UniProtKB/TrEMBL annotation, chain A:
The keyword DNA-binding applies. InterPro entries: Cro/C1-type_HTH, Lambda_DNA-bd_dom_sf. SUPFAM superfamilies: lambda repressor-like DNA-binding domains. CDD domains: HTH_XRE. PROSITE patterns: HTH_CROC1 (PS50943). This is Transcriptional regulator, HTH XRE superfamily protein. Keywords: DNA-binding. The keyword DNA-binding applies. It comes from the Bacteria.
Amino acid sequence: MKNKLKVLRAEHNLTQEQLAKAVEVSRQTINAIEKEKFDPSLMLAIKLARLFKTEIESIFIYAKD
Amino acid sequence: MTFSMKTKKQQILNLAGWTWSWIATLALATFGPQFIWDDHQLLTILFVGLNFANGIAMVIANRHFFNSLDELQRKIQLEALGITLGLTVIIGITYSLLDTTNLIGADAEIGFLVGMIGIIYLVSTLIIGRRYA
């Protein structure tokens, strides 16, 4: 799954560490999501969307391949 | 369950504490009868029981540690546990077969299996963790 997390994080001037703390996960998890190596749970996706005051679909883009 | 580095660190320390005390009570229960209390049966029973109870506490601490992890860390641990379980069954059965068919000179020892579980779990956790780095 593709995502715009890195762009959104940069727009909000947040480090991976700060974002990780805000959504209560490890920095490694944020890094893995940004590199599209790991797809977050629905709960984490909702937390991220709420934090950036946007919708889940604006952050995560489902791609078949 | 919410994730916090402080909670995770506390749980790691808790698990480490119970693991080391389990090893200590195991050593006491193993070598105590011969070297410390001269085969006193009551003391041996007491230390074997203490070691067992300590083992249960270690398992509970391990569960708490798992619950303190976030979703990616749990996924890494789960994959590592799956690999460890699979390889342990395969290698354990092969090792036992080598013993029963007399293809190896020495008897199969449970200590070998326990040591192997630890090494496979450690290596697979590191390899899988690197995949998400």
